[in-house]
Amino acid sequence: MLRVDGVPLHVLREGTGPAVVLCGGLGMAWFDWEAVTALLAPDRTVIRFDRPGLGLSAPAPGPPTAAAEADRIAHVLDALGHPGPATVVGHSMAAFHAEAFARLHPHRCAGLVLADGSLADPARPVLPRAVRHAWAGGVAGAASAAGLPRALGPAGRRLISRAGALGPHPAHPWERTTYRTSRVVRACALENAAHPYQAAEVAALRPRRALPPVPVTVLAAYGGGETPRELRWLERQRGLAAELGGRFVVAAPAGHLLMADAPEAVARAVREL
Protein backbone atom coordinates (compact mmCIF):
# COMPACT_ATOMS: atom_id res chain seq x y z
CA MET A 1 0.00 0.00 0.00
CA LEU A 2 1.43 3.37 -1.06
CA ARG A 3 0.03 6.82 -0.33
CA VAL A 4 -0.19 8.59 -3.67
CA ASP A 5 -1.71 12.07 -3.90
CA GLY A 6 -2.98 11.58 -0.37
CA VAL A 7 -4.86 8.34 -1.19
CA PRO A 8 -3.67 4.87 -0.04
CA LEU A 9 -3.33 2.81 -3.22
CA HIS A 10 -2.85 -0.92 -3.67
CA VAL A 11 0.22 -1.24 -5.92
CA LEU A 12 2.02 -4.33 -7.23
CA ARG A 13 5.47 -4.41 -8.82
CA GLU A 14 6.79 -7.68 -10.27
CA GLY A 15 9.60 -8.75 -12.58
CA THR A 16 12.72 -7.00 -13.81
CA GLY A 17 13.48 -4.89 -16.86
CA PRO A 18 11.87 -1.85 -18.50
CA ALA A 19 8.78 -0.61 -16.68
CA VAL A 20 5.28 -1.41 -17.98
CA VAL A 21 2.17 -0.02 -16.30
CA LEU A 22 -1.06 -2.01 -16.78
CA CYS A 23 -4.25 0.07 -16.41
CA GLY A 24 -7.59 -1.74 -16.42
CA GLY A 25 -10.91 -0.49 -17.72
CA LEU A 26 -13.93 0.79 -15.85
CA GLY A 27 -14.31 -0.84 -12.45
CA MET A 28 -11.51 -3.36 -12.93
CA ALA A 29 -8.97 -4.59 -10.38
CA TRP A 30 -5.35 -5.68 -10.28
CA PHE A 31 -6.18 -9.36 -10.67
CA ASP A 32 -7.66 -8.85 -14.14
CA TRP A 33 -4.06 -8.60 -15.40
CA GLU A 34 -2.75 -11.82 -13.85
CA ALA A 35 -2.23 -13.70 -17.15
CA VAL A 36 -0.55 -10.73 -18.87
CA THR A 37 1.70 -10.11 -15.86
CA ALA A 38 2.87 -13.72 -15.87
CA LEU A 39 3.92 -13.39 -19.52
CA LEU A 40 5.70 -10.03 -19.14
CA ALA A 41 7.39 -10.36 -15.74
CA PRO A 42 10.38 -12.43 -16.99
CA ASP A 43 11.75 -9.41 -18.87
CA ARG A 44 9.70 -6.41 -17.75
CA THR A 45 9.02 -4.63 -14.48
CA VAL A 46 5.24 -4.92 -14.43
CA ILE A 47 3.35 -2.36 -12.36
CA ARG A 48 -0.33 -2.65 -11.52
CA PHE A 49 -2.39 -0.51 -9.21
CA ASP A 50 -6.01 -0.17 -8.20
CA ARG A 51 -7.46 3.24 -8.90
CA PRO A 52 -9.08 4.92 -5.87
CA GLY A 53 -12.06 2.97 -4.59
CA LEU A 54 -11.31 -0.10 -6.70
CA GLY A 55 -9.66 -3.36 -5.69
CA LEU A 56 -8.01 -2.74 -2.34
CA SER A 57 -7.39 1.01 -2.72
CA ALA A 58 -8.99 3.66 -0.54
CA PRO A 59 -11.73 5.90 -1.95
CA ALA A 60 -10.90 9.13 -3.77
CA PRO A 61 -12.03 12.50 -2.42
CA GLY A 62 -13.46 13.57 -5.79
CA PRO A 63 -14.65 12.33 -9.19
CA PRO A 64 -12.07 10.93 -11.62
CA THR A 65 -10.68 12.93 -14.55
CA ALA A 66 -8.36 11.89 -17.36
CA ALA A 67 -5.74 14.45 -16.33
CA ALA A 68 -5.82 13.36 -12.69
CA GLU A 69 -5.47 9.69 -13.68
CA ALA A 70 -2.55 10.57 -15.96
CA ASP A 71 -0.90 12.34 -13.04
CA ARG A 72 -1.63 9.33 -10.82
CA ILE A 73 0.30 7.04 -13.18
CA ALA A 74 3.28 9.40 -12.99
CA HIS A 75 3.05 9.64 -9.21
CA VAL A 76 2.82 5.86 -8.78
CA LEU A 77 6.03 5.57 -10.81
CA ASP A 78 7.60 8.25 -8.59
CA ALA A 79 6.54 6.42 -5.43
CA LEU A 80 8.14 3.22 -6.73
CA GLY A 81 11.36 5.00 -7.67
CA HIS A 82 10.94 4.69 -11.46
CA PRO A 83 11.93 8.14 -12.78
CA GLY A 84 12.60 6.90 -16.31
CA PRO A 85 10.05 6.42 -19.09
CA ALA A 86 7.53 3.60 -18.90
CA THR A 87 5.28 1.85 -21.37
CA VAL A 88 1.62 2.25 -20.44
CA VAL A 89 -1.11 -0.22 -21.42
CA GLY A 90 -4.60 1.27 -21.17
CA HIS A 91 -7.61 -1.00 -21.51
CA SER A 92 -11.07 0.32 -22.39
CA MET A 93 -11.68 3.59 -20.48
CA ALA A 94 -8.09 3.55 -19.20
CA ALA A 95 -6.98 4.25 -22.78
CA PHE A 96 -8.00 7.83 -21.94
CA HIS A 97 -5.62 7.77 -18.96
CA ALA A 98 -2.77 6.27 -20.98
CA GLU A 99 -3.10 8.79 -23.81
CA ALA A 100 -3.43 11.69 -21.38
CA PHE A 101 -0.29 10.45 -19.58
CA ALA A 102 1.66 10.50 -22.84
CA ARG A 103 0.47 13.99 -23.71
CA LEU A 104 0.84 15.52 -20.23
CA HIS A 105 4.02 13.67 -19.19
CA PRO A 106 5.78 13.16 -22.54
CA HIS A 107 9.22 12.53 -21.06
CA ARG A 108 7.84 9.77 -18.81
CA CYS A 109 6.28 7.76 -21.66
CA ALA A 110 8.20 5.06 -23.58
CA GLY A 111 5.23 3.79 -25.56
CA LEU A 112 1.50 3.16 -25.53
CA VAL A 113 -0.68 0.11 -26.04
CA LEU A 114 -4.39 0.98 -26.18
CA ALA A 115 -6.17 -2.32 -25.64
CA ASP A 116 -9.68 -2.16 -27.11
CA GLY A 117 -9.67 1.41 -25.85
CA SER A 118 -12.64 3.69 -25.48
CA LEU A 119 -12.92 6.37 -28.15
CA ALA A 120 -12.72 10.06 -27.35
CA ASP A 121 -15.85 11.95 -28.37
CA PRO A 122 -15.32 15.69 -28.89
CA ALA A 123 -19.00 16.42 -28.18
CA ARG A 124 -19.57 18.01 -24.77
CA PRO A 125 -21.74 16.00 -22.33
CA VAL A 126 -25.22 17.42 -21.77
CA LEU A 127 -25.21 17.51 -17.96
CA PRO A 128 -22.60 19.38 -15.90
CA ARG A 129 -20.01 17.02 -14.45
CA ALA A 130 -20.96 17.88 -10.85
CA VAL A 131 -24.61 16.99 -11.48
CA ARG A 132 -23.85 13.62 -13.01
CA HIS A 133 -21.29 12.89 -10.28
CA ALA A 134 -23.78 13.72 -7.54
CA TRP A 135 -26.45 11.57 -9.18
CA ALA A 136 -24.07 8.58 -9.48
CA GLY A 137 -22.96 8.98 -5.87
CA GLY A 138 -26.58 9.11 -4.74
CA VAL A 139 -27.49 5.96 -6.64
CA ALA A 140 -24.47 4.13 -5.24
CA GLY A 141 -25.31 5.32 -1.73
CA ALA A 142 -28.91 4.12 -2.02
CA ALA A 143 -27.76 0.75 -3.34
CA SER A 144 -25.32 0.40 -0.47
CA ALA A 145 -27.93 1.32 2.12
CA ALA A 146 -30.16 -1.40 0.69
CA GLY A 147 -27.36 -3.97 1.03
CA LEU A 148 -27.14 -4.59 -2.73
CA PRO A 149 -23.32 -4.63 -3.00
CA ARG A 150 -23.01 -7.44 -0.48
CA ALA A 151 -25.88 -9.39 -2.01
CA LEU A 152 -25.37 -8.81 -5.73
CA GLY A 153 -21.96 -7.21 -6.27
CA PRO A 154 -19.92 -10.36 -7.05
CA ALA A 155 -22.72 -11.79 -9.22
CA GLY A 156 -22.91 -8.53 -11.15
CA ARG A 157 -19.18 -8.58 -11.67
CA ARG A 158 -19.34 -12.14 -13.02
CA LEU A 159 -22.16 -11.26 -15.43
CA ILE A 160 -20.18 -8.33 -16.79
CA SER A 161 -17.06 -10.49 -17.12
CA ARG A 162 -18.94 -13.18 -19.03
CA ALA A 163 -20.43 -10.58 -21.35
CA GLY A 164 -17.02 -9.09 -22.10
CA ALA A 165 -15.05 -12.30 -22.62
CA LEU A 166 -15.40 -15.15 -25.10
CA GLY A 167 -13.92 -17.93 -23.02
CA PRO A 168 -14.85 -19.18 -19.55
CA HIS A 169 -12.56 -17.65 -16.96
CA PRO A 170 -12.77 -18.75 -13.32
CA ALA A 171 -13.44 -16.14 -10.67
CA HIS A 172 -10.37 -14.81 -8.90
CA PRO A 173 -10.24 -15.55 -5.13
CA TRP A 174 -10.34 -11.80 -4.36
CA GLU A 175 -13.30 -11.10 -6.63
CA ARG A 176 -15.99 -11.85 -4.09
CA THR A 177 -14.23 -9.95 -1.31
CA THR A 178 -13.76 -6.73 -3.27
CA TYR A 179 -16.96 -6.48 -5.31
CA ARG A 180 -19.26 -6.98 -2.34
CA THR A 181 -18.14 -3.68 -0.78
CA SER A 182 -19.96 -0.37 -1.10
CA ARG A 183 -16.58 1.30 -1.67
CA VAL A 184 -16.04 -0.54 -4.97
CA VAL A 185 -19.65 -0.15 -6.10
CA ARG A 186 -19.43 3.60 -5.55
CA ALA A 187 -16.12 3.80 -7.45
CA CYS A 188 -17.65 1.90 -10.38
CA ALA A 189 -20.65 4.24 -10.43
CA LEU A 190 -18.43 7.32 -10.38
CA GLU A 191 -16.17 5.99 -13.14
CA ASN A 192 -19.19 5.21 -15.29
CA ALA A 193 -20.56 8.72 -14.71
CA ALA A 194 -17.18 10.26 -15.59
CA HIS A 195 -16.74 8.36 -18.87
CA PRO A 196 -18.20 10.96 -21.30
CA TYR A 197 -16.38 13.80 -19.57
CA GLN A 198 -13.06 11.99 -19.80
CA ALA A 199 -13.72 11.31 -23.49
CA ALA A 200 -14.35 15.01 -24.13
CA GLU A 201 -11.31 15.89 -22.01
CA VAL A 202 -8.97 13.76 -24.13
CA ALA A 203 -10.53 15.02 -27.38
CA ALA A 204 -9.88 18.60 -26.23
CA LEU A 205 -6.31 17.72 -25.19
CA ARG A 206 -5.29 16.35 -28.61
CA PRO A 207 -4.94 19.65 -30.49
CA ARG A 208 -3.22 21.31 -27.52
CA ARG A 209 -0.67 18.71 -26.42
CA ALA A 210 1.08 16.61 -29.04
CA LEU A 211 1.97 12.99 -28.45
CA PRO A 212 5.68 12.41 -27.86
CA PRO A 213 7.58 10.54 -30.61
CA VAL A 214 6.99 7.11 -29.06
CA PRO A 215 5.54 3.93 -30.58
CA VAL A 216 1.79 3.46 -30.26
CA THR A 217 -0.19 0.27 -30.84
CA VAL A 218 -3.99 0.13 -30.95
CA LEU A 219 -4.96 -3.46 -30.13
CA ALA A 220 -8.56 -4.18 -31.07
CA ALA A 221 -10.54 -7.17 -29.83
CA TYR A 222 -12.45 -9.14 -32.47
CA GLY A 223 -14.70 -12.07 -31.74
CA GLY A 224 -14.89 -13.27 -35.35
CA GLY A 225 -18.42 -12.12 -36.14
CA GLU A 226 -19.54 -10.18 -39.21
CA THR A 227 -22.20 -7.98 -37.64
CA PRO A 228 -22.18 -4.29 -38.61
CA ARG A 229 -21.50 -3.38 -34.98
CA GLU A 230 -18.38 -5.55 -34.76
CA LEU A 231 -17.02 -4.40 -38.10
CA ARG A 232 -17.76 -0.78 -37.28
CA TRP A 233 -15.85 -1.14 -34.00
CA LEU A 234 -12.79 -2.48 -35.85
CA GLU A 235 -12.91 0.44 -38.27
CA ARG A 236 -13.16 2.95 -35.45
CA GLN A 237 -10.18 1.34 -33.72
CA ARG A 238 -8.28 1.46 -37.01
CA GLY A 239 -9.19 5.15 -37.24
CA LEU A 240 -7.85 5.75 -33.73
CA ALA A 241 -4.54 4.16 -34.71
CA ALA A 242 -4.34 6.40 -37.78
CA GLU A 243 -5.17 9.51 -35.75
CA LEU A 244 -2.42 8.74 -33.24
CA GLY A 245 0.08 7.70 -35.88
CA GLY A 246 0.20 4.21 -34.42
CA ARG A 247 0.06 0.59 -35.50
CA PHE A 248 -3.28 -1.22 -35.72
CA VAL A 249 -3.36 -4.85 -34.54
CA VAL A 250 -6.34 -7.20 -34.13
CA ALA A 251 -6.51 -9.68 -31.26
CA ALA A 252 -8.73 -12.57 -32.33
CA PRO A 253 -10.65 -14.39 -31.15
CA ALA A 254 -11.14 -12.12 -28.16
CA GLY A 255 -13.87 -10.21 -26.40
CA HIS A 256 -13.55 -6.78 -24.86
CA LEU A 257 -11.72 -8.29 -21.86
CA LEU A 258 -8.86 -9.26 -24.12
CA MET A 259 -6.39 -9.45 -21.24
CA ALA A 260 -8.34 -12.57 -20.24
CA ASP A 261 -9.12 -13.95 -23.72
CA ALA A 262 -5.83 -13.07 -25.42
CA PRO A 263 -3.11 -12.24 -22.87
CA GLU A 264 -0.45 -13.34 -25.36
CA ALA A 265 -1.60 -10.65 -27.79
CA VAL A 266 -1.29 -7.97 -25.12
CA ALA A 267 2.19 -9.14 -24.07
CA ARG A 268 3.29 -9.35 -27.70
CA ALA A 269 2.04 -5.81 -28.37
CA VAL A 270 4.18 -4.55 -25.47
CA ARG A 271 7.29 -6.39 -26.63
CA GLU A 272 6.88 -5.28 -30.27
CA LEU A 273 6.70 -1.57 -29.51
List keywords for this structure.
273 residues; alpha/beta; seven-stranded mixed sheet; two-stranded antiparallel sheet; 10 helices; 9 strands; 45% helix
Describe the structure.
The protein is of the alpha/beta class. 45% of the residues lie in helices and 16% in strands. It is built from ten helices and nine strands. The strands form two sheets. Strands 3-5-4-6-7-8-9 form a seven-stranded mixed beta sheet, with helices on both faces. Strand 6 (86-91), helix 3 (94-104) and strand 7 form a beta-alpha-beta unit. Helix 1 (34-40) runs parallel beside helix 10 and helix 2 packs across helix 3. The longest helix is centred in the C-terminal third of the chain and has 24 residues, at 182-205. It is globular, with a radius of gyration of 18 Å. The mean pLDDT is 93.
First and last CA, distance: 30 Å
Strand element count: 9
Question: Biggest β-sheet: count, sense, barrel?
Answer: 7 strands, mixed
Q: Rough shape? A: globular
Give helix % range: 40-55%
What is the helix tally? 10
Please give the order of strands in the largest beta sheet.
Answer: 3-5-4-6-7-8-9
Poorly predicted ranges: none
Radius of gyration: 18 Å
Share of residues in strands: 15-25%
**H and E string:** EEEEHEHEHEHHHHEHEHH
* Alpha-beta content class: alpha/beta
Mean pLDDT: 93
